[in-house]
Amino acid sequence: MHRLYEYGDIAVFWNSEKCFHAKRCVSGSPETFEFGRRPWIDLTKAPTKEIWQTIQKCPSGALSCVYTHEVDIRFEADKNRSAAYKGEELIGECDLEKTADGWNIYHTEVSPAYGGKGIAKRLVYKLIEAAERAGENIIASCSYAAKILGE
Ligand code: SF4
For the chain, how many structural domains are there in total? Predict the structure, then answer.
């Protein structure tokens, strides 16, 4: 299961398949990470610095994070994509097609001016999360998305 949590200036990625429940996250920021709560990660509960430092101690790599740089990520179901906006300017997108094998991510692109900020990863996570919530299988012919799926 892949989930993307975003609040304020931080975006947090969580891949449950890598998590082996060492629970360093829970001890590092108990208000933020609470197994059994829904959602189990609540970024409103602690300062960004505390959350960031806690995530760096996750031993499995299940948790990772980036700063959002005031870039908003949206799932646009009507356009079969996730999209990145700086204000109202479209600066990136990740596109899917619905196939007999599931949702196929075939294209991921971010404006070069915004490269290296984790935006592509946020876009891919947003689509994977949407597919999982819809009960759809997710595949990727886009090599970047395939790499994220395989991580
Ligand atoms: S610290 Fe990482 S591996 Fe441990 S419970 Fe939290 S997310 Fe899972």
Answer: 2
